[in-house]
Specification:
The chain has a single domain (2-141), classed as Nonspecific Lipid-transfer Protein, Chain A, CATH 3.30.1050. Helix content is 38%, strand content 26%. It has six helices and seven strands, in the order βααββββααβααβ. The strands form two sheets. Strands 4-3-2-5-6 form a five-stranded mixed β-sheet. The relative contact order is 0.22.
Amino acid sequence: MFTFPSLEWFQELARLMNENDVPYRRLGYADVRWAVEIQPSEPDQPTHLFVFVFEEYGCESVRACEAGAQPEIAFTMRATRGTWEEMIRNIQENKGPDLQHTLNYLTLPDDPIYIDAPDFLDRDLFARYGQTFQLFFNGAIQVPTTFSG
């Protein structure tokens, strides 16, 4: 069982991606450094920041950073813990997201997931590799998950 949010939970998604690159090869390579920020839904919850390095058809690394860190990345997907949990539960319960829980749907109006990037070209990497990110999160179907606090 893996706890969300945790480094181990995201490392399991990376392991699944790296062990089955066939669907990623169909989408095309993705070379990008990016992050997920899980903001508190409740005042007593901490902020979590995870940085990913995708190269070609796999995830080369995942690491946790201190909240407020400024890692060298193209963009950050920012949302509350409640938003991330709802998306993950929906993916798991439906064996893939319904239309209201895809990354595309959740980010298009910049709410509830905001794509924070220093410039338009870096932000465009989210759109360019969007299906790869969705497939990565769809790996949650195979990750037995408990949700902390």
